[in-house]
Amino acid sequence: MHAAKHHRHLYTVEQVRALDRRAIDELGMTGFELMSRAAAAAFAHLCRHWPQARHIAVFCGPGNNGGDGYLLASLAHDAGMMVEVVELSDEPHGDAARARDAWQRHGASTRRWQPDTTLPRADTYVDALYGTGLNRAPEAAIADLIECINASATPVLALDVPSGLNADTGHCPGVAIRAALTVSFIAAKRGAHTGQAASKVGVLQLDTLGLPDVLWQNVHADASLLEPSCLPPRERDAHKGDAGHVLAIGGDHGTAGAIRLCGEAALRGGAGLVSVATRIENLMALNAARPELMAHGVHGPQELQALLDRADVLAVGPGLGQGAWGHALWLTALDSGKPLVLDADGLNLLAREPRRFAAPAVLTPHPGEAARLLGKTIADVQWDRFASARALAQRYGAVVVLKGAGSLIADPNGRLDVCIWGNPGMASGGMGDLLTGVIAALLAQGCSAWDAARMGVGLHARAGDIAARNGERGLLASDLLEPLRALSNGIERD
């Protein structure tokens, strides 16, 4: 397997096609040789992943992805496996036609897919229908085939990308293959790492097909995958003033829990001091549950101002509400010019009263909040999460974390990272409040907005994965606090 140093770089489909062309034009390779390497790589992954497989069925489309499938079928046949090929067309084009001819010389089983036929029995299915060549919903007959494959109990190996998944955006305009294993060729496609891709790709492997590093020279990746990171150990003479002072603002009537989670996450994230500006009726509960938080009851802007003067970084929004009280505190906080993290109702208020930020700012919207901030629908945002995250960062002059499966971190200059951790158990109340506090703590300890967002998202998601080892369903936001502390100190727990 060839993964190489490019495994954390993400590319658009057009960039990968340009790499294909470059391999042909500058390295003197043929398209058929690239296809043969892809088939060999995929077959090797199949054998490693399913060593007991003896009977496979390969579903081949008419394009190059189908050509990969025909050549894989030939390799499996030569290895003594029982192989059946189900094809969409008996008239593939280009190198795929040559690959089909090579398969037919084996004299093995090939049949056309008809909607009224049953799927072949096999230990493993291979999806070589469309790959990256499809950016629309599959036509009805092919959609029926995909649904039949998904409904079977047979595990699926997808070649390059599960058919039906947009490899650029991670969106599925129609039905898509649910793979157990996806082997991506030459370069990682950015859409395989976010949005609906999370439920389609299964185990995702990259094989660069043994191509030399010169192929990637002067080709700038569109995005990158996050790497694990944390702050360095503190100096032995450090004091709490060195680690910054976070002021968390929120907790309207009935939402004391949100601002407590935010404040406690800021403490666990390493902030030296954390104050909370909230409704006065929340003070007793906050002081009893977490006395390390310096909780203050504020009625309005005048009482908030004294707290703002002492703070280094603001965390605004958890439980804030959009009423007169919350709006007044929000406006005062933003007008202070302090570095801040904005979440929840802090974002909803920003959608009503847009502004660009001069001081370092991190916005952490989920798709619904992102839609309001952009004046679009949630479907618009999810259709292309990369474009949405970048548009938000440019519009508001802030670093943006677009939350969801494969959270994206974008800055106003177009840089973008993708989070590879996290799990469905984190889709529960309070997780966003924790993230706000963690990022604010990192800002308070001297990180730039970009580094604080990237590191904070990574720590938060990795803590969620550790906490989910006892099961995803029923995972609580507060379950992340202990692993968050360990990870923040560079302690990896088995």
Automatic annotation (TrEMBL):
User: Which cofactors must be present for this protein to function?
Assistant: Mg(2+); K(+)
Q: Which InterPro entries match?
A: CARKD, Nnr, Ribokinase-like, YjeF_N_dom, YjeF_N_dom_sf
UniProtKB keywords:
ATP-binding, Isomerase, Lyase, Metal-binding, Multifunctional enzyme, NAD, NADP, Nucleotide-binding, Potassium
Q: Where, if anywhere, are coiled coils annotated?
A: none
Q: Which transformation does this protein catalyse, written as a reaction? A: (6S)-NADPHX + ADP = AMP + phosphate + NADPH + H(+); (6R)-NADPHX = (6S)-NADPHX; (6S)-NADHX + ADP = AMP + phosphate + NADH + H(+); (6R)-NADHX = (6S)-NADHX
| Domain YjeF C-terminal per the UniProt entry, residue ranges | 223-491
- List the PROSITE patterns: YJEF_C_3, YJEF_N
Pfam families, per the entry: Carb_kinase (PF01256), YjeF_N (PF03853)
Which residues does the record give as (6S)-NADPHX binding sites? 64-68, 131-137, 160, 258, 319, 366, 433
Q: What is the cofactor note?
A: Binds 1 potassium ion per subunit.
Annotated EC: 4.2.1.136, 5.1.99.6
**What the protein does?**
Bifunctional enzyme that catalyzes the epimerization of the S- and R-forms of NAD(P)HX and the dehydration of the S-form of NAD(P)HX at the expense of ADP, which is converted to AMP. This allows the repair of both epimers of NAD(P)HX, a damaged form of NAD(P)H that is a result of enzymatic or heat-dependent hydration.
Please give the HAMAP family that the UniProt record associates with this protein. Answer: NADHX_dehydratase, NADHX_epimerase
The entry's family comment says: Belongs to the NnrE/AIBP family. Belongs to the NnrD/CARKD family.
Question: Which protein, by its recorded name, is this?
Answer: Bifunctional NAD(P)H-hydrate repair enzyme
